[in-house]
Specification:
With 231 residues, this protein is mainly alpha-helical. The protein is built from eleven helices and no strands. The longest helix has 23 residues. This is Tyrosine specific protein phosphatases domain-containing protein.
């Protein structure tokens, strides 16, 4: 799994394949299995795995909280659109926010989007420069101050990761009663036709006048390849 970006769709399937049976077998147990999450930096990928694990375990155990008040008020327009598309959108967002807050002692995967987005504005970049650098697929930065903290494509990576976590939450809520008969890679393609990928193609922030910042269409197109679970 690459650092600071959304896992590939097949990675979510691997997680369900590896952890789903474990969590199912321990339902009602007083001694749940300990899961160790680790990555090179012990931050982004570790937290992403923790969030996915918390969500999967909660759904399998029937312990999804009914309502969750997020610890922050971070808000993004494209996420509102995603929630509206998903049949279980509000429940999925609720599940993600629950898991994100559970793991925020490492990194808050929701708040880091807003923090990075705010940084581009705090450094006085013009709208044109924000658009230019946030659409670049490379690693160019423009300011010695910004250079110490962030590459502009990181903001989009974080938003895409949050988007995928909500999709994964929707998937496990939908498919757990069916014993995950459909792979996540197939579910993303077929459950809502192309609606989810259309949103990914127009990734934007809460400002409805914000220009499209997605420059990584090749990534999700690659993710759509059929990957079959090893049994």
């Amino acid at each position: 799994v690459s650092d600071e970006i959304a896992p590939e769709e097949k990675d979510f399937d691997d997680l369900v394949r590896l952890l789903g049976p474990i969590f199912t077998s321990e339902v009602g147990s007083l001694h749940p299995t300990a899961i160790v999450c680790n990555c090179q930096m012990g931050r982004g990928r570790t937290t992403t795995m923790l969030v996915c694990m918390y969500m999967l375990r909660a759904v399998v155990a029937g312990a999804v909280p009914s309502t969750v008040e997020p610890k922050s008020s971070a808000h993004f327009g494209v996420i509102d659109e995603l929630v509206a598309v998903l049949d279980n959108g509000n429940e999925s967002l609720n599940l993600v926010n629950y898991a994100v807050d559970m793991a925020d002692h490492v990194q808050n995967l929701r708040d880091c989007i807003e923090s990075c987005r705010d940084l581009t504005k705090e450094n006085g970049l013009s709208v044109e420069k924000q658009e230019y650098f946030m659409q670049r697929a490379g690693t160019t930065v423009v300011s010695s101050v910004v250079d110490r903290y962030i590459k502009y494509d990181l903001v989009v990576n974080y938003l895409e990761r949050y988007f995928y976590l909500i999709c994964f939450a929707s998937y496990i809520l939908d498919q757990q009663p069916k014993q995950f008969q459909t792979l996540f890679v197939n579910w993303m393609c077929s459950r809502y036709d192309n609606a989810l990928y259309a949103l990914l193609d127009n990734l934007n922030f809460d400002d409805k006048n914000d220009d499209v910042v997605s420059s990584m269409r090749w990534r999700w197109r690659r993710k759509r390849k059929m990957v079959y679970r090893l049994e």
